[in-house]
Amino acid sequence: MARGKILAICQSGGEFITNSDGSMSYSGGEAHAIDINCEMSLSDLRSEISAMFNFNADTFSIKYFLPRNKRTLITISNDKDLQRMVDFHADSDTTDIFVTKKVESRIIRSVVADSGTSTDANTASVATLEEAKRQKLCINWDSMITGVGQVFSSPKAFRDALHKYAIANSFMYRFIKNDGSRVTAECTVEDCPWRIHASRSSAKQKFMIKKMNDIHTCGKELSKESRRLASQRWVASIIKDKLRDTPNYRPKDIAKDLQQEYGLSLNYSQAWRGKFIAKKELHNSHEEAFSQLSWFCERIIETNPGSVATLHTSDDSRFCFFVTFHASLYGFEHGCRPLLFLDGLSLKANKQWKLLAATAVDGQNDIYPVAFCVLDSEASENWHWFLVQLKSAFTLSRAITFVSSSQNGLEELPEVFEDSFHGYSEQQLIENFKKEMDESWTQELKNKMVGHLKRAICACKVDEFNESIENLRIQSKELAEWVLGMEPEFWSDAFFKGLRYGHYSSGAAEIFNDWVSTRYEPSVLQIVDILRCKLMEMMYSRRESSNTWTEVLVPSANQKVQEEMIKARSLRVACSSDSVFEVSDESTNVINIETRECTCRRWQVTGLPCMHALAVLERMNGCIYDYCSKYLMTECYQQAYSLSINPIPDVGGPVCADSFHAATTCPPRTRRLAGRPKEKPAEPRIIIKRAVRCSRCQGLGHNKQTCKAQI
Fold this sequence. Notes:
By secondary structure, the chain is α+β, with helices and mostly antiparallel strands. It is about 35% helix and about 20% strand. The strands form 5 sheets. A 7-stranded mixed beta sheet has the order 13-14-17-16-15-18-19, with helices on both faces. It has a 5-stranded mixed beta sheet with strand order 4-1-7-5-6, with helices on one face. About 5% of the residues have low confidence.
């Protein structure tokens, strides 16, 4: 088959069957062959399928399986999805695609006009609709048991058929004998003669019904004991499809729906356990996914040469899974500033696992993930292991500035990166600062104090830093002393020795939590693959966007230079030598063009010429771009995204199980807590209390009756 072209077998009219191993197969219907190339659009494909099966183009959806993954159906909803399918099956001779009709949900309203229709008739019609709905759902169950001689593939298949048969015919049964070779059941009502017996035939070893008395004298009415028919596994099999489309399907809604549709009375516990089993079957268990991590490491390295994927396990079944892709490494080392943010975060989708992330900033000041590690605890030894893996992955030696919260990662940095610089995260510092202010502070005053702290963080000169501290001291001496006690040399530009280029914290937590869906609890394997897909799309979209840029500087830097140029035109420039100049406005600053330094220190901190430097360059008729950091150039930005992260088509699971890995890689020990697992808690309400002000002395924190001021 030619490159970029596949032969697709379109199937419609059949049904999906779930096998014992969890995989799915398609049975029945009709099939047609069609050629799909990389240039075909989704609308063209829909038009061709519509003519092929005589369908309306808006009434069906198109799905397919990934190679070597028959458990999850992938929906084609746009042209990019169609292109991915062609790429994934480029090495296959044929590809199966399935055309399924969309299910429409309609609301039926009864309109009572002047026809004289009574309300009783309307009520009866509603009851008839409900009964018809139930009969439609159970229409095939009434014939699941046909009589003596009927053959089943196994005792389990017979028990499943008997279960549905009892629900469709509204009676309860109990097992007299139930094992791997024979099953005997009878009606639970005393003196009712209904009875059935099935066992393996001696000749073909098939499970067959040998005896059956199909006469009921009990009236066949389900009572409250009907909940016994709704086993956990059966409830899971019934609600699985709806749970896939509606992840927030509540247990009380499950019980209500089963009562309306099947006439079964379930309690809350049964519905919840059925939902739990269905979720586990829909999304591979953590243990199953964990056993595939060693295989996944090999697939990452195989499909993305130069990448690093390492799995570390300990004797107590703890693990660390480190991943960095070659495209990200190359882009960071050749196109990003030597600045890394270290973040330890809990994913909202699955709080059982922790994520350690090393992220950089590109020329457009967007987050650039470099490496990440999934593990079960954020211990100091895990941070040390993560940093060791990160250092071994780098191919270039250069001084890197690290920014992290004071309690996460920083204490391990000097041991691994000896020549690096370490700074505190602005976000963590501000959060700790807010905790020092009690409820007597108004929200307006709190915001004002935070503003002073931010100016102290961004202060380029010591004078600016001291001015911000004095503003804090006016409001509270204790808070000013607390800020000074937090080691400003680790977080203020006035004292920090490294280069942060105007970036003081990262948004890694928001980015990664937005990427990983909270529709269900993903396993470790699913988390890593979701992040890989998001990184792959990010690299592609930003590369395509940058190819349209025509300026030397990236758009954000170019806009900043234009704004500073307007300010520079009002400055006075005096020349001292060929490279040293004096620039005056409200203050006097000295510029050294050769060393790229200004006494305001903004040139050194940001990598872009400040307005004083721009005034000098304009007088010299110098080229502004020669004095900008190379990391802000469009060429350097394009180099950061020049490589691609390759897809892993068979991510659903390895072709064959590796017995060695299965023996040595054990899943982490997880203990289920007592009681029903809690859903994600609602966000706490933020209550802003008004500060109490004394009408006598105008002080805060007390009233007139408790005032002790001398007036």
